[in-house]
Each structure stands twice: as C-alpha cells, then as structure tokens.
Amino acid sequence: MAIERCEFCRAVLAAEHRHLLELASRTLVCACDACAVLFSDPGAGGEKYRLVPRRYLALADFQMTDEQWDALMIPVGMAFLLRSTGPKRVMAFYPSPAGPMESLLDLEGWEALAASNPILNDLEPDVEALLIDRTRNTRAYYIVPVDACYQLVGLIRISWRGLSGGETAWKAIGEFFADLQARSSKQNQDDRGT
Asked: If you average pLDDT over residues 120-144, what whole number do you get?
C-alpha cells in the first residue's frame, strides 16, 4: 500500500486525514492536521483552497416528494448536490462507473426543496453536499463533506460490473451508507455530550 503524504509539508498521513478542496480544479488535496489548521478560519485559503468540514448529518425529517425529485432532473437514484461559488449556482452530480457526472439542475426545484428543508441553506459552499439515496426503495438524505461524495464515486468506479452493478457493488454501497449512518449517529451523540 502506498504511503500518503500531506500535499503541503509532505508529512506521512494517517488513513483518515483532512482534505482541502482546490476550488479552480475541484480536486481534493490531502493535508495533515497541522496544515489543515492553517485553513480552518473562513477565508484562510483565499480563493484557492477551502477546508473540507467533518459534519455528517442523517436528515431523518427531510421532506422530498417524488415530484420534487423528478423536478431536479437527475437520471439515477443517487446524487449529491452542492452550492458552488465558481459558477455561483447549485450543482448536482451523480456517481457512475465513469466518475462523477454533472446533471443540469432546475434551480426552481432546488429552491422549493430548500424552502421545505431550511437546513440546506446552511450547507458550506463547495465543500458540503446534500447526498441523496433513492435507490432500491430507499429514501435517505444526508449532509456530508464533499470528500465522502467522492469516496462513494470511487467505490462505484472500482466495484461496478455490467449494467446493474452486481452484488459486490451493491454490498459496498450498502456498507458505505451504513457507515454514514453510524458517523451521523456518533456526531449527534457527541454534540449532545453523551
């Protein structure tokens, strides 16, 4: 297994480490905790970098009808949506075996969704996303760091087989969402001081 290093100071990184988003290229940059602290204040990365937060929230009370989902014009049952400061709009991507695919997003559909779910107005631009899972009769919604979305994309890229994905891919996707649920529950407990 290759050793991962901080892309700023070259320190060896732990398996779980921080990321920054390079805004111009929309690529993730690995960072050690010490370098990540340098970017923790809003605006510290200027127009070049933004620190990816660590917030995971399962949105159990999320309100989304099938009609609202259809209005977003996303052709598959899984997507992540984020506010982008570059093009100054909400962008939607869905994971595919070819990588993240951008979907055209009807802004009116997003505005109606945000009106029903005010927490969407608190998403950190560029680095936090609404992750939607409406596959296989599931209706699950999360606020996650954008690096979690790209982790899901990578998982699908390496495990998807054929047209339907195959049992291995769907097992990995199920484990990914179970981990999101566990992280959300742990953060909720930590926030309550338990």
From this structure: 94
Q: Quick one: pLDDT at residue 17?
A: 94
Do 42 and 65 lie in a common domain?
Answer: no
Q: How many domains does the chain have?
A: 2
d(CA 43, CA 51): 10
Name 43's Cβ contacts closer than 8 Å, sequence gap at least 6.
Answer: none
Question: Phi, psi at residue 52, to the nearest 5°?
Answer: -80, 125
Based on the fold, state whether residues 88 and 135 are members of the same structural domain: yes
pLDDT per position as a tens digit, 39-71: 988 777 778 999 999 999 999 999 999 988 888
Q: Are residue 81 and residue 96 in the same domain, yes or no? A: yes
Both 73 and 21 in a single domain?
A: no
